[in-house]
Amino acid sequence: MSGFDEYIAQVREFLKGREAREFVCPGSVDELGKGLPVRVGPGSNPGIILRSDMFAELGNPSEGSTGFILWTEDASLIRDGRVTLIGPDIPEIEGGSRPFGQILMLGGKNLSAELQEKVEEYQHISDSLEGYMVRSSSRSIWGRISREAAAKGFTLETLARALMITIKSSVPEAESMEIILVTSNRDDIRQLDAIAQNVEGVRKEIVKAYWKERGYDLECDLNCTSCTSKETCDDIRVIIRAREAKEKAVNP
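The structure assignment produced for this chain is given below.
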């Protein structure tokens, strides 16, 4: 087990009794991309969204934000394609700033500790989604949607579909994926962040154990988004993956 199953249950408990909108998206990457109002893919949004060009803002530090990923080998625990939205959607918050929570839940029998960091690489996709910019550090997510994207029809379902496209394309071991997005109020974000703190502890242990098995005893906070040694760690990962591939070729 990944160690996240109990937190999936806690998220389910959080959702109980709350007024929410649900969207059911297609399961396949090709179908997910059909009809999207903006482009999705590397380089789709190379620029910065200035306040003067902003339609809406999510997770400004003054409002609060939290985000985390949960995965399980039991794909049946995850409702594939389901997006749950608690709070107003983008068209309803023109010119405003809202608190923001983003929970990504993945299921697949071949998901493992080896994929933990790979999944995390695709948690924030601002350079791959037209009209959306995000700043992130640790559990915080501070995003902006441009006026142009909003005029084209950008909604939180658009963001969810883009996340599904990116992760399912890059991590095929994710057989099912579900997303919860929260823009309701600070108290809801605080409750989710309490779960996020515990999730972060499990996540760190998973990453440490994975690298220790490969001869690297990590002594860092494991927050790659702010780490000055990220380039070195990336090089180590490339070397290890190349070695593992070579070993598999010799001993299939």
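Interim note for the steering committee: The helical segments are 5-15, 29-33, 116-121, 147-152, 156-170, 186-213, 230-250. The two ends are 26 Å apart (CA to CA).
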